[in-house]
Design brief:
Layout: E1 2-16, E2 19-26, E3 33-34, E4 37-39, H1 46-58, E5 65-78, E6 82-93, E7 109-113, H2 115-121, H3 124-141
Helix pairs in contact: 2-3
């Protein structure tokens, strides 16, 4: 097993009425779905990486997103060839109508999905983390008047 270090990303959501949708992107070779994410470059903070990767992959920059910094979570990601730590936050798209600008060099598609469909499509190693994130959203964001 090869140690690939750290990856960081954002679970981007947008409000839709009294609910939310989450943005997932699809890897072209594997066909797997997940949030925008990528490896930490030398000298970058985890948050810098999450912002950079989100902008590179879907076109949303810091000004487009509200980050819920207290949602920072780490998850251990293991597969046959990789062993890494994933660091993720929840980010809300400020303008829910802003279009995704997918980077075709990195992804073959994107979807805005309900929490249930997101849970079904994401990688197994992210399911527990996403469940915690979605609980935070239900309890803190959908019941608040912000």
């Amino acid at each position: 097993m090869v140690d690939r270090g750290r990856i960081c990303g954002l679970f981007v959501l947008r409000r839709k009425g009294d609910s939310v949708e989450y943005l997932l992107v699809q890897k072209p070779k594997k066909g797997s779905w997940g949030p925008p994410k990528g490896r930490v470059d030398p000298g970058e903070t985890d948050m810098d990486t999450a912002f950079r990767e989100t902008e590179e992959e879907v076109g949303y920059d810091k000004n487009d997103l509200k980050i819920y910094e207290d949602t920072r979570r780490e998850v251990h990601i293991v597969s046959k060839r990789k062993d890494k730590i994933g660091v993720f936050w929840i980010a809300e798209l400020i303008d829910a109508q802003k279009e995704v600008r997918i980077n075709p060099a990195e992804h073959s598609g994107f979807k805005w999905l309900s929490p249930q469909d997101t849970q079904r499509l994401i990688l197994n190693c992210l399911k527990s983390l996403f469940s915690d994130f979605n609980q935070f959203v239900r309890e803190k964001l959908l019941t608040s008047t912000d």
